[in-house]
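User: Here's a chain of 286 residues. Predict its fold as tokens.
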Amino acid sequence: MTVLSVPLNETALLRAARIRLRRRRLLVLAAQLALVALVLGGWQLGASQGWLDSFTYGSPSGVAEQLRVWFTEGTATGSIWRNIGVTMQETVFGFLIGTAAGVLLGIALGRVRALADIAAPFIKAANSIPRIVLGSVFIIWFGLGPSGKIALATVLVFFSVFFNAFQGTREVDQNLISNARILGASPWRVTTQVVLPSAMTWIIASLHSAFGFALIGAIVGEMLGAQYGLGQLIAQAQGSFNADGIYAGTVVIAVLALLAEWLVTRFEKRVLRWRPNQAGSHAARI
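Assistant: Prediction complete.
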């Protein structure tokens, strides 16, 4: 009995910690839903009572009606799903291209200091250019098609991922690199089997914001000039002073961003399964 008491006690403590963690999550969710209900209820009440100008500020009921029209009757440029598809295509392509370029260049410059010194002023200068200016330039170069939006999304994603990949490469323990070299590892194997896994935490962390930047790039590019896309719908609503249309487009974008964040989180958990489980320590804090 004495030998088995320790594992049994640990199991009971872990089960109790998980119950507390589950309760805390439910409490947080309830508070979030209450906050949303409070904001939407106050907004609707203010619009219906005339405290807020519905022409300027819209109303939740108006936004819901606009969404219903878009999803059942379509938009001025066709099906809402076509516009969502165009925006997501631009976003995903920009995200993938920008991530690949940011990781490759970040690791390369992080590994070779001479290259980093040469490229530093050019990267800083490019990063300082306002993105809205690049959007206008890309429209001139690529026209109103998706290429310009993909290019703008790529630029926004690139810098977000590049700086994390670069810093993650510089933060790799030099003892690990030295030991790998002593064991006869080639520079390529050191990079792929030591540096890249060590910097992966930094790289994955950047993906949470990178997809959001890709979506921003696609939306901004569409608002500057496009035939299809959610940004184009918002620009149309802005041109006709349709506040409900602007908010409806924002709601759709927010839903897509939250879905993407969930997918990135799932990807992070799968890729970084080697990290110690934080559930126990998190539950202990509760």
